[in-house]
Design brief:
By secondary structure, this protein is an alpha+beta fold. The chain has three helices and five strands. The chain has one domain: Heat Shock Protein 90 (2-Layer Sandwich), CATH 3.30.565.10. A hairpin with a 6-residue loop joins β4 and β5. α1 packs antiparallel against α2. The relative contact order is 0.19. The model has no long low-confidence stretch (mean pLDDT 84).
């Protein structure tokens, strides 16, 4: 596995308006995880990789569902810690819905992220409108 001190350049994905952004983000993340030695073509994914892919998919999907589309997706690393950031145009802050209010129309995504990620939250985004929703997932094999 690549040393946790080996820098990995951040990946910026600018969606083109089509629903392909989640797939593009997953492919970029798989490439990064392969380069860092977290997965390979022979052994495939591990549980932490699965979690990272699920979290990026959910964050991008939420941007489509609640804000029309993501504005920008960023994947960055500090050691074994992956930070996934998704900018959108909505100022509405996501929250974990109480279990009784989840159902056919949704409400499970942020609750799932809050359980799977080491941390998550929102900040105003750099575009001057909207927000950035982020989640951090550890791929530390010792965790």
């Amino acid at each position: 596995m690549t040393s946790s001190t080996t820098p990995m350049p951040a990946e910026r994905i600018i969606p083109d308006g089509s629903p392909s952004a989640a797939g593009r983000a997953r492919r970029a993340l798989i490439k990064q995880m392969e380069q860092l030695g977290y997965m390979d073509a022979v052994h495939g994914l591990n549980t932490r990789c699965d979690i990272a892919l699920l979290v990026v998919s959910e964050l991008v999907g939420n941007a489509y569902r609640h804000a029309g589309s993501p504005r920008e997706i960023r994947l960055s690393w500090q050691g074994h810690m992956l930070t996934i950031e998704v900018d959108d145009r909505s100022r509405t802050t996501p929250f974990v819905r109480p279990q009784h209010s989840r159902g056919e129309s949704g409400g499970f995504g942020i609750a799932m992220i809050s359980q799977l990620a080491e941390s998550w939250g929102t900040t105003p985004n750099c575009h001057g409108s909207g927000k950035t929703v982020y989640a951090q997932v550890s791929l530390d094999p010792a965790a």
